[in-house]
Design a protein that fits this description.
Number of strands of chain A: 8
Distance between the termini of chain B: 7 Å
Oligomer: heterodimer
Largest sheet of chain A: 8 strands, mixed
Number of helices of chain A: 11
Bound molecules: guanosine-5'-triphosphate, magnesium ion
Strand content of chain A: 5-15%
Shape of chain B: elongated
Number of strands of chain B: 8
Structural class of chain B: alpha/beta
Helix content of chain B: 40-55%
Strand order of the largest sheet of chain B: 3-2-4-1-5-6-7-8
Distance between the termini of chain A: 6 Å
Structural class of chain A: alpha/beta
Strand order of the largest sheet of chain A: 3-2-4-1-5-6-7-8
Radius of gyration of chain B: 20 Å
């Protein structure tokens, strides 16, 4: 626990007499370790530590009665600030349907999250439709169909020789005619360095003009997350993130790193495999989690 | 090469630290590796080439010798486990294909009876690989599937049975207990058979990978790791951190979504790629 470790650091430092400004750096090393352990990007951590040092020096924390506690406060509030505002809900497009496109690496939870989002919207009194635009993974369409069934939301599945773009376009048309007011599009997992699949994603985006293109990110993602998110962002401008598998013990530093670098907010968090396991994002809770 | 083409000063070590951290080795393993490199430098290694080789050797020493799958005497059982979405089912399809190519008789067990379309997904891989799949209805007891599959393994003179399990977070005690139960069924119904328990780890995983390896290892003895999705830009350095902490060998790497995108783990090639 960071607070305990910092407490030990300052007690040890005090053992040598009064604390000085230089002692702050010893504490900052502990904080850096905690951030790296939490998968915060190395560069993001470095900039973050510099800002914490500035605040700690500004507050002359070495003169405080409980400098360890004070430093943790600074770190927590700075993390919370970086993570941005709590999500206030998806804004409906002025002219329906609102189109939401889910993108991301393989296995991050897109298909499951598509179902969760659809259920969430339905509970809010909206009329969502799901589009099964993953035509490559074995039984992906079937997976979304089952998920849609459980959510009580209709699913548009590929017909004939349709590709992902044609499916997305037809789903949008179907949404208008039903009429549905929100279209949630599940896409195939792909690498940001796969030129063909990245181009396909850009064509899907072109065909349906999403109001929300959301990167679905696994909470256990490591240091490469920022590069990956930047790759996706170049292909299809991202509007936000959904952070999944937060019911585990992954600290989620990759999410902070992406928010800090891309300037896009986390909208929702996935907290389990059930369709109800979707919660709005709260920055202070994620900040506490990253701190460990 | 930028890193190795310059003098051995403190900025060299700082940049090396950043390279290893960025590869997901984690602070602890990175510190240990750099300490060892400093020792080698003190002992007289000075040229960039020699440094690079020394660094690769240090990483290879942590990763251990290439470890093959232990499949004889047949029949052997491979249980594939790991957290949600790591690449288990796809890896099984690839393994089945490889074993069939090697002339082995393969059987798959669809013991993920929980997730939507998990059984269908494995059945498609079974068709692609040309192997049979033992399955029950969705929602049935995974242990019953494993039990049936082992009886079929014996009856049909199968060489390798591969068991697909549901993704599970290592923090869920009930799910880890379910895994222990599956392991008990395997040991009881196939006593003395070689058993490989492979943890499939997503190469993009950060430091949480260590917790995953520890907790799965606590549930049942792991024989190795499959590092999946190494075809991305993540370096998979978490495998080094896990080897350092638990001596758990990577046996296979997944390099894509196609049936032949699976290779034995080559510690030297992996170490070289890490430093690029
Ligand atoms: N514990 C937990 N598991 C989750 C969560 N979200 C998704 N999963 C699980 O993660 C695994 C992968 O989910 P999918 O929805 O298939 O992921 P995907 O991104 O669609 O995968 P691809 O289409 O192959 O890229 C499944 O086992 C899901 O049940 C979550 O919030 N918590
Ligand atoms: N690029 C790449 N994708 C992979 C690799 N291995 C698996 N995948 C993809 O990762 C996604 C998840 O694979 P699955 O095999 O469903 O993973 P799983 O561990 O069985 O997932 P759950 O059963 O839901 O826990 C799929 O889209 C696969 O195609 C790999 O080596 N490279
Ligand atoms: Mg999917
Ligand atoms: Mg699976």
């Amino acid at each position: 626990q960071l607070q305990t470790r910092l407490g030990t650091v300052f007690t040890r430092l005090r053992g040598r007499g009064t604390l000085s400004a230089e002692d702050v750096d010893v504490a900052l090393r502990e904080i850096r370790l905690a951030l790296l352990e939490a998968d915060v990007n190395v560069k993001v951590a470095r900039d973050f530590i510099a800002r914490v040092r500035e605040a700690a020096v500004g507050q002359e924390i070495w003169k405080s009665l409980n400098p360890g506690h004070q430093v943790v406060q600074i770190v927590h509030s700075e993390l919370t600030r970086l993570l941005g505002e709590a999500h206030r809900g998806l804004v409906a497009a002025p002219k329906p349907p609102t189109v939401i496109l889910l993108v991301g690496l393989h296995g991050t939870g897109k298909t499951t999250t598509a179902g969760k989002l659809a259920l969430h919207l339905k509970k809010q009194g909206r009329h969502p439709l799901l589009a099964a635009a993953d035509l490559s993974r074995p039984a992906a369409v079937r997976q979304l169909e089952i998920v849609g069934q459980r959510a009580g939301v209709p699913v548009v599945s590929p017909e004939g020789g349709e590709d992902a773009v044609a499916l997305a376009r037809r789903a949008l048309a179907r949404c208008r005619e039903l009429p549905g007011d929100t279209l949630v599009v599940d896409s195939a997992g792909r690498l940001h360095i796969d030129e063909e699949l990245v181009a396909e994603l850009a064509r899907v985006r072109e065909a349906i003009s999403p109001h929300y293109t959301l990167l679905v990110l696994d909470a256990m993602a490591g240091q490469d997350a920022v590069r990956m998110a930047e790759g996706f962002h170049r292909a299809v401008p991202l509007d936000g993130l959904i952070l999944t598998k937060l019911d585990g013990d992954a600290r989620g530093g990759a999410a902070l790193s992406i928010v800090a670098t891309l300037g896009r907010p986390i909208l929702f968090i996935g907290t389990g495999e059930r369709l109800e396991a979707l919660e709005p994002f709260h920055p202070d809770r994620i900040a506490s989690r990253i701190l460990g | 090469d930028e890193l190795f083409g310059r003098p051995l000063d403190e900025t060299f070590y700082e940049d090396l630290e950043e390279t290893l951290l960025a590869a997901d080795l984690g602070a602890g393993t990175t510190e240990a590796v750099i300490a060892r490199l400093r020792e080698r430098a003190r002992a007289g290694i000075r040229t960039p080439d020699a440094l690079r080789r020394a660094l690769a050797e240090i990483l290879v020493a942590i990763l251990g010798e290439p470890a093959p799958l232990h499949l004889s005497p047949a029949p052997a059982v491979i249980v594939v486990l790991g957290v949600n979405g790591s690449g288990k089912t796809t890896t099984i399809g690839k393994l089945a294909h490889r074993f069939r190519r090697e002339g082995r008789k393969v059987l798959l067990a669809a013991a993920d009876t929980f997730r939507a379309a998990a059984i269908e997904q494995l059945e498609i891989w079974g068709q692609r690989a040309g192997v049979e799949v033992v399955r029950h209805a969705e929602g049935s007891d995974p242990a019953a599937v494993v039990y049936d599959a082992i009886q079929a393994m014996h009856a049909r003179h199968v060489d390798v049975l591969i068991v697909d399990t549901a993704g599970r977070l290592h923090t869920k005690a009930n799910l880890m207990e379910e895994l222990r139960k599956l392991d008990r069924v395997v040991r009881r119904e196939a006593p003395g058979a070689p058993v490989e328990s492979l943890l499939v780890l997503d190469a993009t995983t950060g430091q949480n990978g260590i917790a995953q390896a520890r907790r799965f290892q606590a549930a049942l003895p792991l024989s190795g790791i499959v590092l999946a999705k190494l075809d991305g830009t993540a370096r998979g350095g978490i495998a080094v951190a896990i080897a350092d902490a638990l001596r758990l060998p990577v046996k296979l790497v997944g390099l894509g979504e196609h049936i032949d995108d699976l290779q034995p783990f080559d510690p030297r090639a992996f170490a070289e790629a890490l430093l690029t």
